[in-house]
Amino acid sequence: MNWDTTYILSQIFTIITYILLGVTYYAKDRNKVLVLSFLSLIANGIAYIFLNAWTGLAMCIVALIRNIIFLVDEKKNGVKDKNNKTDIIILVILYIILIISTIFTYEGALSLLSVFATALYTFSVWQKKTNIYKLLGIPIGVLWILYNIYIMSVFGIILETILLICSLTGYLLDIKKK
Question: What is the pTM of this model?
């Protein structure tokens, strides 16, 4: 691993990504959360550009599309307790976009770690049960850590490990309450 200017910039944008993600947990209204999430994905995409991690960049784009679709659907139809036929169609469309972007950016078997993480995360935010979201946060975190190892993003590994610990703790606390 060469700590040249490009790599250092990738790590700066990785840190910005996780700072913005962290701030979303303290934002009071949904619009702020969404804006911070979009900015986080953009910063993450820039980091992936610097790392030449094209599948990771594609997954950021898929995530941006996913968030826009979910936001538009929620504004149009309101927040729902259960998924309906339209929700299933949306999920299928998102997975088709994910598969197509993977075909164009495939960089080897290990690049699929980011694809699987994005697919799991998309499902976790698509469905309506927070306990499933929290449970899936564990394998999602592991997949992102492994992907960050693959692309050699030191701060990605460190900060994703912290998120994994938070996800695991949140899930265990949820189980303890029940």
Answer: 0.88
